[in-house]
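=== Structural record ===
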Amino acid sequence: MDIDDLTLDELRPLVAPLAAENAVFDGWTDMALTAAAEQLGIPPERARLLFPRGAVDMIDAWYASTDAAMAAAFPPDRIAKLKMRDRIRELVRFRLDHMAPVREAARRALAVLGLPQNLVSGTRLGWRAADAMWRLAGDTATDFNHYTKRVTLAGLYLSTLMVWLGDRSEDGVDTSTFLDRRIDDIMKIEVAKARWRSNAMYRPSLTRFLGRLRYPAV
């Protein structure tokens, strides 16, 4: 592979993980990007074209590379063998394990995305991660449930990520315990929602009631 022949879109997923490695020491800065470019053997000027918004675009591309690695690690036959709660757990755990070698870069990424001017980008990236996990888990919902599932999982993922960043327990047991507890909560909510939907036809309908008042049966 000749690095000089690659397009910007082809280069971006190659540069982003290297930028994350350097962000451990230099933060999500031009220094980290320059070091990544030198490792890959491309001019820093060309690397800057990959990320016109600087740190936010670098983090975006790094998160995208994590999404791609997760998808590659969980082909359909692997996912199919797991129960739904285990699918979500394994997907979240994979993301944490994938980021573990550059944990400080992950911490700095959250700090960047937490800035007021970056909140929209941070929310979008959290949604994208949750959507990628639900799709890999086999979710096919297209109604309002599609959105509530992703909002809930995005919150779970962010809260677990925060616990993980501060976890100093042996083998990360505190993170695992927290994650299992949160997934149990989500599964309870999903079961309750399923029961609510299955019983919908038996609940009183205000619309039908008002219709009968207006057009009483003869």
Observations:
- DSSP finds eleven helices and no strands in the chain.
- The chain has a mean pLDDT of 90.
- The chain has two domains: 1-52, 59-218.
